[in-house]
Write a structure and sequence with these properties.
single chain, mainly alpha, two-stranded antiparallel sheet, 20 helices, globular
Amino acid sequence: MLAHLPVLQVIVPLLAAPSCLIIKRPVLVWMFTLMVSGAAFLISIALLQQVLASGTISYEMGGWAPPWGIEYRIDELNAILLLIISAISTVVLLAAQTSITAEISEDRHTIFYALYLLSLAGMLGIVSTGDAFNVFVFLEISSLSAYAMIAMGQGRRALWASYQYLIMGTIGATFILISIGLMYQMTGTLNMADLADRLPQVANTKTVLVAFAFFIVGVCLKLALFPLHMWLPNAYSYAPSIVTAFFAATSTKVALYLLIRFTFSVFGYSFSFTTLPLQELFLGLGLLGIFIASAAAIYQTNLKHLFAYSSVAQIGYMIVGFSVGTSAGLMATLLHVFNHALIKGALFLALGAVMYRVNSVQLNDFKGLARQMPLTMAAIVVGGLSLIGVPLTVGFVSKWYLVMAVLDNGWWPVAVLILLGSLLAIVYVWKIVEVAYFIDPEPGTPQVSEAPMALLVPVWLLVAGNIYFGIDTRLGVQMAQSAAQSLFGGSP
C-alpha cells in the first residue's frame, strides 16, 4: 500500500466525488467528504516523510516506465504543496456543513461536495504528476469544478464572478496547453524530467521561446499576478465562504508551484533567468502588485473584496522572492506559500462565521461586532496582524526571510519597498478594528451571538497555526529551505 501512496493521493478524492451523488443525505455526504480529505492529508504526511527520508519518489502508472508511461513524481517541493492543500482542505471542511447551510440551498449540498472533491483531486493531481499534459488535464478538472462552486454563491453577482473567472481561466489554460504542445513538437516527450533533458538542445529556437512566453502568461493568469488579477476579487467575494477560504489558501499556491516547477525544473534556471528578462519583469510586477492591490484594499467596504485584493498583494511578495533568483529568495517564497495559506484560511473562515450570523460582510455591518462576536473578531485581528507582519506571527517570519534575501542580493531599495507595503496593510486592517471595536452599532440593529463552535474550532485551529509557526519556525523554514536548495542543485 505504501508504494501506491502517490496515486492514492489523487485517486481517492477523484473516485469519491461521484460517490457523493450516491450517498445524497447532506450530513452523510459532508462526513464522507471530510473523511476523504482527511485521508488525503494523512497520505501527504506519509509522502513527505518518505521524501525526507529517502529522496524523490517516482511512481510508474500501469508499470510503464517513464518517459513512455505517465509518471507521478514526488519531491520535496510538491510534497510540501500536497501537505498544504490537503491540510487546509480538511480544516475548511470541518466548518463546511454549518457554513453552507446559510449560503447554499440544501438540495445542492450533495453537488457542492462532489465538486469540492473534484477540485481537491485536480489540485493534488497538478502537484503530483510528472507529465506536462496531465498538468493541463488536472488543471481543467480543478478549474471547471471551481467555476461551478463559485456560481453557487448568493445572488446574480456570483454567476457573473464565475463567468468572469471562466473566461480568464480558459484563456490561461489555453495558453498553457499551447505551450505544452510546442514543447512536445520540439522534444517528442511530455514527461517533465525528460523535457528538462531535451529542451536545452533546442533552447535557442523561436518555438521554445514562444512556448516559454505562452506558459508564463498562462500561469500568471491562473496565479492572479498583477495586472492579470481582475478575475480574483469578484471570485473570492461572491463565492460561498467555504469556497473562498479553500481557494484563497490553495489555488493560487498551485499556480505558483507550476511557475516554480517549470522555470526551475523543466526550462531550467539558466534559460528562465538569462534568456529572457524574467527577473526584472517579475520584480516590477511583484512590487506593483504589492502597492496597487494594497491601495485598492484600503478603499473596499466589502471585507471579502478587501482581503481578496490583499491576496493579490501577497502574491506580489511571493513573486518578489521568486524574482531574486537565489535559493534564499525562493525559500522566502515557499515559506510565504505555507504561511499565507494559514493566514487567508483563517481570515476567510472567520468572515464565513460573520456571514453565518450577520448575513453580510460589509464593513458598515461590523460596527460594535467585537462585543457580540469577540472570538470571531479576535481571529480576524490575529489574521490581520499576521498580514501586516507583526512579530510572533507567521507573516513576520515570511517578510523577515524575504527582506534578508533581497538584502543578500544587494537590493536594499526593494527591502525598503517591502516594508512600506506592510504599512499599507496596517491601514486596511485598522479600518476593520476601528469599526468593530470602537464604533457603536446603529440604533435598532439586531443583536447577534457568537458563531457556533462548528465554525469557531476550524477558525481557531488556523489562528493557532498562525501563532505557533510564528514562534516555532523550524518546520516551515526547514521544509522551504530544503525544497529551495534541491531546486538549485543543493547549493545554498
